[in-house]
Amino acid sequence: MNPHTLKSEISATAAALVVEEGLEYGPAKRRAVKQMGLPARTELPGNDALEDAVHEYIALFCADTQPAELAALRAVALLWMERLSQFRPYLGGAVWHGTATRLSDIYIQLFCDDPKSAEIALIEHNVVYEPRTVTGFTGGSVEALSLRSVCQALNETVGVHLMVYDHDDLRGALRPDGKGRAPRGDLAAVQKLLFIPLESET
To answer: pLDDT tens for residues 162-180?
Structure first.
């Protein structure tokens, strides 16, 4: 099997894991390699290729349910972005890019003048959260404040992860991705995604 075909098969297998089990891209690709019985050192497809495969999987198997689930998650994201508007919130990940399902978590990046200010705000509002250290989009370690939020439209709780960045990181955060798209969106951009006017009301 040529490398291109193999990467396509890994992408397709990983896409099913992303959609059906809510795995992140990295773990999904590694699990796909294992499921396919391939060597652990097999070269993995890029995230852009996997995202394309996720779109294809959703179109084939979830076209009747995914749009409503995505809208429900975006509504929860918007709620938290409004609550945390003073910290310059940006939505990223599958909920921003449109590939999220009910199993997906919400990733919101906060760009704070004081890195502890967002955590203090959660404490003041009695929000239960778990602090963790994760690798951020800059490649360095950032604090993530993880919590559960009720999503009434889905009748369940969903994971919300608040990634706390320094205000100076915001400039790099807005560079277009490999497909020329905005890699994340601010409050106004998310509002536009949820409240798209009808093209014709005649």
So the answer is: 999 998 898 888 888 877 8
Whether 17 and 117 share a structural domain: no
SS3 category, 69: helix
Q: What is the pLDDT of residues 88-134, one digit of tens each?
A: 999 999 999 999 999 999 999 999 999 899 999 999 999 999 999 99
Single-letter code of the amino acid located at 123: I
Any domain includes 201: no
- Give this prediction's pTM: 0.88
Residue 172: partners with Cβ closer than 8 Å, 6 or more residues away:
137, 138
Range of the domain at 79: 66-194
Query: Residue 105 carries which DSSP code?
Result: P
Q: How many domains does the chain have?
A: 2
